[in-house]
Specification:
By secondary structure, the protein is α+β, with helices and mostly antiparallel strands. It folds into two domains: about 25-85, Arc Repressor Mutant, subunit A (Orthogonal Bundle); about 95-175, Glutaredoxin, CATH 3.40.30. The protein is built from seven helices and five strands, in the order ααααβααββββα. It has helices at about 25-35, 45-55, 60-70, 75-85, 105, 110-120, 165-175, and strands at about 95-100, 125-130, 135-140, 150-155, 155-160. The two termini are about 35 Å apart. Bound molecules: FE2/S2 (inorganic) cluster (FES). FE2/S2 (inorganic) cluster binds near residues 100, 104, 141 and 144. FE2/S2 (inorganic) cluster binds near residues 100, 105, 142, 144 and 150.
């Protein structure tokens, strides 16, 4: 896949009036996270996790607010958020399906499962269905190579996956 270049310097950030990091969150970060680290940068990961778990994604405005809170460059927050698959820079669907694409799962048939999910849901990896129901991800090793192929679905790992198995999971979650 070719790199796609984004005009970051001129991109307009969508903003809302209500801050993403409210006073309670900041007070908690000051009390719990900051004292653990010699540098404020150390608290970046736990804060990103907290924002991600609270909202399901980390908006550009939230990244700026995190940077201002930690007195670091917004680019450092962006670098971190975009490096880790755990973090989402856009809202996700109700169900997030992450099919492992690392080497063991690749050798054990991940492509057939990924293709099946792509075709069934009509979305490519890192896209969300138009109804907001599903987001599909292609993820790196989920740490369970002995049970490949695997997928992480709404933060629960499913092992020894088959096409029938992923269909059952999608059917079940479509009903909830
Ligand atoms: S390669 Fe898929 S879990 Fe390790």
């Amino acid at each position: 896949m070719a790199w796609s270049v984004k005009p970051s310097a001129t991109t307009q950030i969508e903003r809302r009036d209500e801050p993403w990091l409210n006073d309670d969150m900041k007070a908690r970060y000051r009390e719990i996270f900051l004292p653990r680290y010699a540098e404020s940068m150390g608290a970046l990961m736990p804060i990103c996790h907290d924002v991600q778990h609270r909202y399901g994604w980390i908006s550009p405005q939230a990244m700026e607010e995190i940077a201002a809170f930690l007195e670091i460059a917004p680019a450092d927050v962006l670098d971190t958020v975009t490096f880790y698959e755990e973090f989402h820079t856009e809202p996700t669907g109700k169900v997030v399906i992450g099919v492992c694409q690392s080497i063991t799962c690749e050798a054990c048939g991940h492509q057939a499962i990924l293709d099946h999910v792509r075709n069934r849901l009509g979305i490519e990896p890192h896209e969300t269905s138009a109804d907001g129901g599903f987001t599909l991800l292609a993820m790196e090793c989920l740490g369970s190579c002995d049970t490949a192929p695997c997928a992480l679905v709404n933060n629960r790992r499913y092992d020894n996956l088959t096409i029938e198995g992923i269909d059952r999971i999608i059917d079940d979650l479509s009903r909830t």
